[in-house]
Design a protein that fits this description.
Blueprint lengths: L3 E6 L3 H12 L4 E5 L10 E3 L5 E3 L5 E3 L2 H9 L6 E3 L7 E4 L2 E4 L4 H6 L5 H8 L14 H9 L1 H16 L8 H4 L1 H10 L2 H12 L7 E5 L4 H8 L4 E5 L1 E9 L2 E8 L2 E12 L3 H8 L4 H8 L3 E12 L11 E3 L8 E6 H4 L8 E9 L11 H16 L7 E12 L5 H12 L5 E3 L9 H32 L6 H14 L1
Parallel strand pairs: 1-2, 1-13, 2-10, 7-15, 13-19
Antiparallel strand pairs: 3-4, 5-9, 6-9, 7-8, 11-12, 12-13, 14-17, 14-18, 15-16, 16-17
The structure holds flavin-adenine dinucleotide.
Length: about 475
């Protein structure tokens, strides 16, 4: 007998999502988290003045029905905090902030692209289908829509939102929907058009939201599910095979402990998974160890509203690499979610480093703040110093889907087939966003529940076959009864 059906290791959003999805499938789950709280990277900090700041994920950008259902089933709908109805996005361009055009008419008059760049974009439907699984984001975007779109739109997105580098990032892994559109329809323009036409009846409307009190509300609500046995301060140190079960040995407050489970899900960063898997599959451990992570420094700045001239009428801005600064972007958090700053104040959350400037992680507070103010002050016409600054540093913020990442993940999947009952469910596999984590977790949970149900059936069949005194008819009746009562 195992102690638990599934042991999930790692209590970030990946581990919490899969634990939640498994208990919904009727599976018994224990969840180990090495730190003293759930959430992993996700953590909200509310200061005594009323600023509410996010250490990592600030919001969920959703267009997937699985996420909508997950939020509903987790009784989180009433706790959602919707994005204020603003649509403007800004980009730093030639030392100024310009709006990023989303409509065709605005695109024609936008200063972001030259006439040649605009004409190049228009040729997209006529570019022949090409590409391969090893292609970089830069190669893919330049090939389809031209270098200007890469430098003025895709590079700032990949650097600012994913902390990555488009010259190294794998297009199949980072832009899975776009690359699929090309493979299916031969062109992005045609693909988007067809997608709109075909998807009109079924598509989930896009919505962006956080939660009342911040993103910690999400993780705290999930962990409060009484069917999940959450064990904080529990670090997994070894996994061994014990018959058809897995034994996980760990430590909690200096004391050793162990649990047997029919299946184990590793929802920990790639290097931690590599350490646990090394005794079982040297190649798999090597593939996981080879995944690089980028550091990111988050600088939260609070200002009196009157000290900033800019209307702050948008989501914030991204910064292209040719601007030559270490900052990658700034979110105008209080424009998005007004409750995250006290009345008469604004909260601007700034990002530094990533793969563009990894050395920034060594900068001290003074240098990090100075760099941010050097960028913000002229762009937003700021007259006074910030009244509040908080810095959050992530040494390993996000996994970089660099090199032939698509091939790497295929090899990881192949290796896992030789380790039945072991699963990898974390942000280096299938997308880094909270949305992608929830979607992947649900499909893995479904697969695990199916495997557990099948193994119950085969174990029962095996034990019945060991009793020849029972007739076939009796056996099949016993079998039906046992399956139905399970
Ligand atoms: C600065 C920043 C901004 C972001 N902004 C957004 C955003 O706005 N929207 C969005 O959707 N996403 C955003 N993301 C991405 C998202 O926050 C992360 O990808 C996601 O939270 C990672 O979740 P995870 O569970 O995979 O990993 P983690 O959160 O890293 O969780 C892994 C957990 O495993 C635990 N652990 C490790 N080893 C062991 C062990 N041996 N035993 C037990 N436990 C162990 C760790 O303590 C940790 O809690 C952002 C990320 C960063 C860094």
């Amino acid at each position: 007998m195992s102690d638990v059906e599934v042991l999930v290791i790692g209590g970030g959003i990946s581990g919490l999502s899969i634990a939640t999805s498994l208990v919904r499938e009727g599976v018994s789950v224990e969840l180990w988290e090495s730190s003293g709280r759930p959430g992993g990277k996700i953590e909200t900090h509310a200061d005594s003045h009323g600023y509410i700041m996010e250490r990592a994920a600030t919001m969920v950008l959703n267009f997937r029905p699985e996420v909508t259902r997950f939020i509903e089933q987790s009784n989180l709908v009433a706790k959602k905090s919707m994005l204020a109805p603003i649509v403007r996005r800004y980009m730093m361009h030639d030392g100024k902030l310009v709006t990023v055009p989303t409509k065709l008419a605005a695109m024609v008059s936008s200063p972001i692209w030259s006439l040649a760049g605009k004409l190049r974009m228009l040729t997209e439907p006529f570019i022949r289908k090409g590409g391969h699984e090893n292609e970089t984001v830069s190669e893919f975007i330049s090939r389809r829509v031209g270098r200007e779109v890469l430098e003025n739109a895709m590079e700032p997105y990949v650097s600012g939102v994913l902390a990555s580098n488009p010259d190294l990032a794998n297009a199949y892994s980072v832009l899975p929907r776009m690359t699929r559109l090309e493979r299916r329809f031969g062109s992005l323009t045609l693909g988007i058009f067809m997608h709109k036409v075909l998807g009109r009846r079924t598509a989930t409307p896009k919505e962006t939201f956080s939660f009342k009190g911040g993103m910690s509300t999400l993780v705290e609500s999930l962990v409060s599910n009484p069917n999940i046995r959450f064990r904080s301060g529990h670090t997994a140190v070894e996994i061994t095979k014990k018959g058809s079960y897995w034994r996980v040995t760990g430590s909690a407050a200096g004391t050793g402990l162990s649990v047997t489970a029919r299946q184990v899900v590793l929802s920990v960063p790639a290097k931690a998974a590599a350490r646990l898997l090394a005794p079982h599959d040297h190649d798999l451990a090597g593939l996981l160890r080879g995944i690089q992570y980028a550091p990111v420094t988050v600088v939260h700045t609070g200002f009196e509203r009157r000290s900033i001239e800019h209307p702050l009428d948008g989501t914030g801005f991204l910064i292209p690499r040719r601007a030559g600064v270490a900052a990658t972007g700034c979110l105008w958090m209080s424009s998005l979610f007004p409750a995250c700053a006290p009345p008469g104040r604004v909260l601007l959350t700034n990002y530094l480093g990533g793969a563009r400037r990894p050395e920034v992680e060594e900068w001290d507070d003074e240098r990090s703040i100075a760099e941010i103010l050097r960028v913000l002050t002229p762009l937003l016409n700021i007259r006074d110093e910030p009244e509040m600054v908080r810095i959050d540093r992530h040494r390993e913020a996000l996994p970089l889907y660099h090199g032939n990442y698509y091939g790497r993940m295929k090899q990881v999947t192949n290796c896992l087939q030789q380790l039945p009952g072991l699963h990898l469910e974390a942000n280096y596999r299938g997308g880094v966003s909270v949305r992608d984590r929830i979607v992947c977790a649900q499909s893995t949970a479904h697969r695990i529940a199916d495997e557990l149900a099948q193994s119950v059936v085969s174990e029962k069949t095996y034990s019945l076959n060991k009793h020849p005194a029972i007739s076939d008819v009796d056996a099949s009746r016993e079998f039906e009864k046992s399956v139905l009562t399970d």
